[in-house]
Amino acid sequence: MSSESAPRALEVEVRSAEGTVVVTVHGEIDMASAPRLQSALDEALRDTPAAVVVDMSNVGFLGSAGLSVLLAASEATGSGGLRVVPSDAARRPIEVTALDRLLTVCDSVEAALAVDETQAPS
Predict the structure, then answer these.
(1) pLDDT, position 9
(2) How far is C-alpha 122 from the geometric centre of its chain's CA atoms?
(3) How confident is the chain (122 residues) per 10-residue block, as mean pLDDT?
């Protein structure tokens, strides 16, 4: 397997921005890497922030295990608490599974940070 076709290891960074926790994800989210994302989201939710933004704009693959992690985080944050910025590769499974009806899906981190709680899905 060439290095170009090898899956990218999952990299996760957690930071605070404007009172919101931003979880930036790079790589592929599959059954093997989803626990790393779950751990980062658990850490982000520990202090019960008003909202969590998951920046997935550099995610090349989002499998069912990753969708499950997003669903669990959405349930933990309550309505509008989880905002996702998906790449094209991540947006498709979110839309196909109708998870976009539970999550607040945004086109950029800036847009996600600017979301008014009243705009969140119910």
Answers:
(1) 83
(2) 18
(3) 57 87 96 96 89 96 97 86 95 96 94 74 48
The answer to whether 83 and 53 are in contact (CB under 8 A) is: yes
The Cα-based distances of 77 to 27, 30, 31, 36 in angstroms read 24, 22, 23, 18
Q: Which residues contact 92 (CB under 8 A, 6 or more apart)?
A: none
Q: What's the DSSP call for residue 10?
A: P
Q: Report domain extents, the chain.
A: 20-110
CA-wise closest residue to 36 among 57, 59, 5: 59
Query: Could you tell me which residues are beta bridge partners of residue 58?
Result: 26
Give the list of residues 6+ apart from residue 42 with CB closer than 8 angstroms, or none: none
Q: Do the beta carbons of residue 81 and residue 102 sit within 8 Å?
A: no
Tell me the fold of 20-110.
Transcription Regulator spoIIAA (3.30.750)
Nearest to 115 by CA among 79, 75, 67: 79
